[in-house]
Amino acid sequence: MEKEKTVDINVRNIPEDLMEKFDIYVVKPSYPGGRSEAIRNLIHTEVLKRQGKDKFVKKRHFTIPKSSFILFALPKHEWEKLAEWNRKKQPIEIAPAPDGEVFLLNNTLLAKATAKKAQKIESTAP
User: Measured in whole angstroms, how far is the alpha carbon of residue 96 from the centre of its chain?
Assistant: First the structure.
């Protein structure tokens, strides 16, 4: 098999705080190969979208109408957490959040955390 030709790129003038957020929210949770792997994937995904070949949705065939669901990808660790909640049949609340984000709330874990906090407050009260 012929080796794929590659190019090296330099990216300049990216704000430091933006790179820190990129590392925290994108690279560390999803790309063990580091920034290069993350950037390669982002470029590849964007090219596929612009070509109308978004492999994530376009190649899937659904038996239910696309108007009845929203499909999106999560970083692996977040997907694993959601899968665990689903496996345990814990109720999950879904709400849109600012900037195109989606908020998934595990009501079972929230109730436990709230009860634990209330118990702690009661035990320290005079």
Answer: 14
Same domain, 78 and 125: yes
Name the DSSP class of 58.
T
Return phi, psi of residue 92, to 5°.
-125, 130
Q: What is the phi/psi pair of residue 95, to 5°? A: -145, 145
Does residue 36 sit within a domain? Answer: yes
How many residues are there in the chain?
126
User: What are the counts of helices (DSSP H) followed by strands (DSSP E) for the chain?
Assistant: 5, 2
Q: Are 111 and 125 in contact (CB under 8 A)?
A: no
Give the count of domains, the chain: 2
What's the DSSP call for residue 68?
G
Same domain? For 83 and 121 the reply is yes
- Determine the 3-state secondary structure of 104 from DSSP: strand
Q: How many CA atoms lie within 13 A of 39 on its CB side?
A: 10
pTM, 2 dp? 0.47
Domain of residue 31, residue span: 9-59
pLDDT in tens, 2-49: 777 888 989 899 999 999 999 998 888 888 888 988 888 888 877 777
